[in-house]
Amino acid sequence: MNVLSIETATEHGSVALLAGGALLSRRIHGAANHSEAVLRDVRAVLAEAGLAATQLDAVAFGAGPGAFTGLRLGCGVAQGIALGADLGVAAVCSLQALALQVPAPRVLVATDARMGEMYHATYELDGDGLPVALNGPCCDAPGAFELPPGDWFAAGSAFAAWPEELEARTLGRLTGCRPDLVPRADEVARLGAAMALRKELVAAEYALPLYVRDKVAFTTAERLARGGRA
């Protein structure tokens, strides 16, 4: 299975290629560098593996939730490659890709959504060791978040942004926490390969980002009310 993947849902972007069981990847630091680096890194991993886009089985991208501009970029690049090579697309939830990094049977993923909110979802590993969503993805204020019963391993930037609020909401039921973890193309490729095997790919023209929240920024009046500048 040869799967090219792109993850640009956060400022920590990446590109990966799963080829014959081997994984090649490139990291992109800083959201401002995503647009110029993604295609360069796509070409680099394909060249390193000695593959053409037409030799891929699928193209996968981190569909979000995350930064709107990044999601549109990842989706657009994946669509362009897939259309040119007549491939199906795997739209992978970025929170699920983050959960796959955690060696725990039950994972709570929460990432900073800005504007005083967080994206979150809970996952449980299936028989193949892949995370399956139990709840979410959702977008809530940290103070409105409700953790399902049981113990969970937590991961994601929300735990760095609101440590006290989330500690109060999780009530000592976290077996560990990794606030440093971010979604990566490495896991997007693995999940995309699983989707390809299950025949869950979509035609390039039907691939869409997973926005969860429609609002992208505060209005001027909202910023002023929160003590910001016009």
Folded structure, characterized:
Residues 31-146 form the Gcp-like domain. Its EC number is 2.3.1.234. This is tRNA (Adenosine(37)-N6)-threonylcarbamoyltransferase complex dimerization subunit type 1 TsaB. With 230 residues, the chain is an alpha/beta fold. The chain has two domains: 2-93 and 183-206, ATPase, nucleotide binding domain (Nucleotidyltransferase, domain 5, 2-Layer Sandwich), CATH 3.30.420; 102-178, ATPase, nucleotide binding domain (Nucleotidyltransferase, domain 5), CATH 3.30.420. The protein has helices spanning 34-49, 68-85, 94-99, 158-161, 163-170, 185-197, 220-225; strands at 2-7, 12-19, 22-29, 58-64, 88-93, 106-114, 117-125, 131-140, 152-155, 174-178, 202-203. The strands form two sheets. The chain has a six-stranded mixed sheet, with helices on both faces. Strands 8-7-6-9-10 form a five-stranded mixed sheet. β2 and β3 (22-29) form a beta hairpin. α1 (34-49) packs parallel to α2. The chain is globular. The chain starts with a strand and ends in a 5-residue tail after the last helix.
Summary?
With 230 residues, the chain is an alpha/beta fold.
What descriptive keywords fit this protein?
single chain; 230 residues; alpha/beta; Nucleotidyltransferase, domain 5; 2 domains; six-stranded mixed sheet; five-stranded mixed sheet; 7 helices; 31% helix; globular; disordered C terminus; ATPase_NBD; acyltransferase; T6A_TsaB; Gcp-like_dom; transferase
